[in-house]
Amino acid sequence: MLKVENVTKMFGGLAAVSDVSVEFEAGRINAIIGPNGAGKSTFFNLISGLHQPTSGRILLDGVDVTNLPSDRVARLGVGRTFQTTNLFEQATVLDNLIVGHRLRTKSGLWDVLINSKRLQREEKAARDKAMEALEFVGLAHVAGQFIADITQEERKRVAFALALATDPKIVLLDEPAAGVNPEETVGFAALMRKMVDEKGLTVCLIEHKMDMIMSLADKIMVLDHGEKIAEGTPEEVRNNPVVIEAYLGG
Ligand code: ADP
Ligand code: MG
């Protein structure tokens, strides 16, 4: 599904991601763990086309997407959430989804404005798609509420819905359960499982909550200082001395 070959991203003299190669299989939950600053979010930015790698290749279903802009990558089936999601506070949940979908799949605000006639015709389809995503994440009942009036946990679910509304094949989730309580975390794990089981999606997840990762992930990649230091099943990673040294034991 996703094949990353020797990808490096330099920021000035800093290798935020350093010669990372990994494959994520379709229909699985893949996790990326590692300390703060390890390069996890940068890795997602490279896959989703927000950053161009300094070197290396990224293949999606065999298609080279290495230097494509993010709107093209989104249309090819990569959905994502961000560590912090900017939402329009004084707009409804539903409108946030409709606008978010446009901004993610068109090349810019200009494109959105200039094509407004065509977009009006697409409005109903976009609305239906957005409602479907909201239903899937359990937010249909707050579709008409303002973002400012929903809970922290509901905001996190809006981020999931945004990632789903572009009809992705693979979803990149950057710390989706950060700042939610343990009970809600169980709900998020169930939602990710449902994305795989009911939608046949491939999930790629950055998360610090080890209990969640260990029970949820099929495969884990461990990054440290931009380098892949380990990968394997939760069992393999848990027992890997390099990981224990660099991360779990630290
Ligand atoms: P993580 O998500 O694992 O905490 P990041 O990918 O956010 O780590 O960051 C990896 C490293 O790259 C950090 O040292 C960070 O400061 C640096 N970095 C991330 N984005 C940029 C950027 N746009 N410009 C310069 N340095 C960056
Ligand atoms: Mg990060």
UniProtKB/TrEMBL annotation:
Keyword Hydrolase: yes
Keyword terms, alphabetized: ATP-binding, Hydrolase, Nucleotide-binding, Transport
CDD domains the UniProt entry points to: ABC_Mj1267_LivG_branched (cd03219)
Chain ranges of the ABC transporter domain: 2-250
Any one GO CC term of the record: plasma membrane
GO terms for biological process, alphabetical: D-alanine transmembrane transport; L-alanine transport; L-isoleucine import across plasma membrane; L-valine import across plasma membrane
Pfam families listed in its UniProt record: ABC_tran (PF00005), BCA_ABC_TP_C (PF12399)
InterPro entries registered for this protein in UniProt: AAA+_ATPase (IPR003593), ABC_AA/LPS_Transport (IPR051120), ABC_transporter-like_ATP-bd (IPR003439), BCA_ABC_TP_C (IPR032823), P-loop_NTPase (IPR027417)
Superkingdom of the source species: Bacteria
EC number: 3.6.3.25
Keyword Nucleotide-binding: yes
Single GO term (MF): L-valine transmembrane transporter activity
PANTHER family associated with the record: AMINO ACID ABC TRANSPORTER ATP-BINDING PROTEIN, CONSERVED COMPONENT OF ABC TRANSPORTER FOR NATURAL AMINO ACIDS-RELATED
Protein name: ABC transporter ATP-binding protein
The organism of origin for this protein: Marinobacter salarius
Gene name per UniProt: cysA
